[in-house]
From TrEMBL:
Gene3D superfamilies: Glutaredoxin
One Pfam family it belongs to: Glrx-like
InterPro entries: Glutaredoxin-like (IPR008554), Glutaredoxin-like_YDR286C (IPR052565), Thioredoxin-like_sf (IPR036249)
Protein name: Glutaredoxin-like protein
Record key words, sorted: Electron transport, Transport
Length: 127
């Protein structure tokens, strides 16, 4: 039996289209370091944004020698922390979308998350 289609000639089944339009919770990764006051400021902004915008959060300390791929991330961000990445699905790596770096305010971060959500939706709808 052929899958239901949203319309004649549509590439994806109706059930797949309806699932892809459901909003997904973004996962944020905050690249931090020890004794980093900007990182502490970014964590406060994230706490403020979390009150109105749902997301999950992982902290990645680039100074932790036991962290996975630490040498790559340390070389990449040793002079730039904090850096915040966003991803929408398990198949993506945290590197897929850098959201902000160094400093941000709660309103600016909320807007950046909305832009990232719209960009992700466009990518999803084009597949």
């Amino acid at each position: 039996m052929a899958p239901l289609r949203a319309c004649v000639g549509c590439a994806r089944p109706l059930w797949a289209r309806s699932l892809s339009t459901a909003p997904r919770t973004p996962h944020l990764t905050l690249f931090t370091g020890t004794h980093c006051s900007l990182c502490d400021d970014m964590k406060e902004v994230l706490d403020e944004v979390r009150a109105t915008t749902p997301f999950t959060l992982s902290l990645y300390n680039i100074r932790d020698d036991d962290a996975p791929n630490v040498h790559y991330w340390r070389r990449k961000y040793q002079y730039d922390i904090p850096v915040l990445h966003v991803r929408w699905g398990e198949a993506q790596s945290p590197e897929d979308y850098e959201l902000v770096r160094h400093r941000t305010e709660a309103d600016a971060l909320s807007q950046a998350l909305q832009r990232a959500r719209r960009a992700e939706s466009r990518v999803e709808s084009s597949t």
